[in-house]
From TrEMBL, chain A:
Residues 67-130 form the ChsH2 C-terminal OB-fold domain. It holds the Pfam family OB_ChsH2_C. It comes from SAR86 cluster bacterium SAR86E. This is PF01796 domain protein. It comes from the Bacteria. SUPFAM superfamilies: Nucleic acid-binding proteins. InterPro entries: ChsH2_C, NA-bd_OB-fold, Thioester_dehydratase-like.
TrEMBL record, chain B:
InterPro entries: ChsH2_C, ChsH2_Znr, NA-bd_OB-fold, Thioester_dehydratase-like. Residues 35-64 form the ChsH2 rubredoxin-like zinc ribbon domain. Residues 68-133 form the ChsH2 C-terminal OB-fold domain. The lineage of its organism: Bacteria, Pseudomonadati, Pseudomonadota, Gammaproteobacteria, SAR86 cluster. This is PF01796 domain protein.
Length: 148, 166
């Protein structure tokens, strides 16, 4: 056996430059983000999904009735990141959180920052902060912050 | 719909995975030899199978492959595929050939390129030899071999590529 200090080591990066087809429903969702609006899809049972869902997981119907939700919402659960790493988009301490936007029945995974861990609990009110430039991606919502 | 109000129908979603790779002891031994231009497989003390590149143990017998087996850079094509579709980020221009290379004396094969030959002439059993980069460019990588090219020797009988019980 070689001594472990003699073992070869090297950095290795694996990158996939995917382009994802949005489809008719998600295209509308991303278009709206570019206009600083958050959309959801409404099913015949009145349930609203945001991020937009293409199908209702209960009734299996295809969804295309778009309704606006948010920009405020409440924290359903969260995980605090005290020491962000290189690949995180936010360099200060922040939380990954599931946020149920006002008017929606499902929750959106996003980030909450500009607060302390102690400020967050299940049910905490937050609101979307928008990026300076829009790219019609989910990151057009820069993060969520505590509702003033 | 005019171009202006066509909804963006795709989104870029790149994935970047940054690893720090630590070669185990078997791979370290192998790559230290590759750096010097040598291909050294590892043999199973029980079934005598020779593995290149070695992973440190024999999957048939479950024992460490602690016998070093120097090999030549000659062998044959065990199987191959012609790649016609460009892969983003890959500098090699299609069509090109990837082949499983079985070196003489080895019981397993590894993937590498075949060049310096018309694609329609490539066949299973064809004799080939490594074409190395200039020595000053050698690193701890099988990329020290630019590709494998055919040599003027008779084809190998495919039946001999089967694993021989010893």
């Amino acid at each position: 056996m070689s001594d472990s200090k003699d073992l070869l080591r090297a950095p290795f990066e694996l990158a996939y430059n995917y382009k994802r087809s949005n489809g008719p429903v998600m295209s509308k969702f991303f278009e709206a983000l570019g206009e600083q609006k958050i959309l959801g899809t409404k099913s015949s049972t009145g349930k609203v999904f945001s991020p937009a869902a293409e199908f209702d997981p209960d009734t299996h119907e295809s969804l295309n009735d778009m309704v606006e939700v948010g920009p405020g919402g409440s924290v359903e659960s969260f995980s605090w990141i005290e020491a962000p790493q290189n690949h995180h988009l936010i360099k200060e301490p922040f939380a990954f959180a599931l946020i149920k936007l006002d008017g929606a029945d499902s929750s959106m995974l996003h980030m909450i920052t500009d607060c302390n861990e102690a400020d967050l609990s299940i049910g905490t009110r937050v609101t979307a902060a928008w990026s300076e430039t829009t790219t019609k991606r989910i990151t057009d919502i820069k993060f969520f912050t505590l509702e003033k | 719909m005019s171009t202006e109000d066509t909804p963006k129908d795709y989104s870029e979603s790149p994935i970047n995975l940054e690893y720090f790779y630590t070669a185990g002891s078997a791979t370290t031994r192998f790559l230290n030899q590759v750096k010097e231009g040598n291909i050294v497989g590892q043999g199973c003390p029980k079934c005598k199978a020779v593995y290149v590149p070695p992973r440190g143990s024999c999957p048939r017998c479950g024992v460490a492959t602690d016998i070093e087996v120097p090999l030549t850079d000659k062998g044959c094509i065990e199987s191959f595929t012609v790649v016609h579709i460009p892969i983003p980020g890959n500098p090699i221009v299609p069509p090109y050939v990837c082949a499983m290379i079985r070196l003489d004396g080895a019981n397993i094969s590894f993937l590498h390129l075949i060049q310096d030959v018309d694609i329609e002439n490539i066949r299973i059993g064809m004799r080939i030899q490594a074409v190395w980069k200039p020595k000053e460019e050698w690193t701890h990588s099988l990329e020290n071999i630019k590709w494998f090219a055919p040599i003027d020797e008779p084809d190998v009988d495919v039946a001999t590529l089967r694993f021989q019980e010893s």
